[in-house]
Structure formats: C-alpha cells, structure tokens
Amino acid sequence: GEGKTNLYFAGGDKALNVTKDRLTGFINALAEAGLPFSAAKVYTGEFNEETGKKFAGKMLKLKIKPDAVVA
Questions:
Q1: In what order do the strands lie in the sheet with 7-11?
Q2: For the whole model, what pTM was predicted?
Q3: How crowded is residue 20: how many other Cβ atoms within 10 Å of its Cβ?
Q4: Is the distance from CB of 41 to CB of 27 less than 8 angstroms?
Q5: Are 7 and 42 in contact (CB under 8 A)?
Q6: SS (H, E, C) the chain
C-alpha cells in the first residue's frame, strides 16, 4: 500500500533537550523519506493531559486529518 505522508509532531516544551532531539529526529526522518517539513504540523507544550487534549482537539478540527502523529 501507499505510505503515510501527512505526518505531525507533538512534543513537550520546545526549550527542553528531549523535545529538541525528538523534533530533530522527526525532521531528519521526513527528509530521508523525501517528505517536506512544515512548522505548521508541529505542536509543542507542557507534558500533561490538558496539553494533549488541546493538541488532539486542534488536529480533529483539521480538514485533512493527519495520517500519523509522532509524539
């Protein structure tokens, strides 16, 4: 079948090294797959349930839903 191409990233505070490292890995994986990176598909915030619900709500409102979310 066809691979997934509409990928999003959800992570913690962008000042945290763990978030920086994960985002860098996400961007590198997109490049290796020949997929473009879009900052509009990156959601960062606190590592808690409230932020997760907020991200999920935003994604559910998108006209074109993500194929996958890397979190």
A1: 42-44, 7-11, 68-70
A2: 0.88
A3: 15
A4: no
A5: no
A6: CCCCCCEEEEECCCCCHHHHHHHHHHHHHHHHCCCCCCHHHEEECCCCHHHHHHHHHHHHCCCCCCCEEEC
For 24-68, the pLDDT digits (tens) are 999 999 999 999 999 999 999 998 999 999 999 999 999 999 999
- Write down how long the chain is: 71
- Return d(Cα 25, Cα 4) in angstroms, integer: 17
Both tokens of 47, joined, read: 């590592």
Structure tokens at 34: 């020949």
Distance between CA atoms of residues 42 and 1, nearest Å: 26
Q: Report which of 9, 11, 20 is spatially closest to residue 44, judged by C-alpha positions.
A: 11
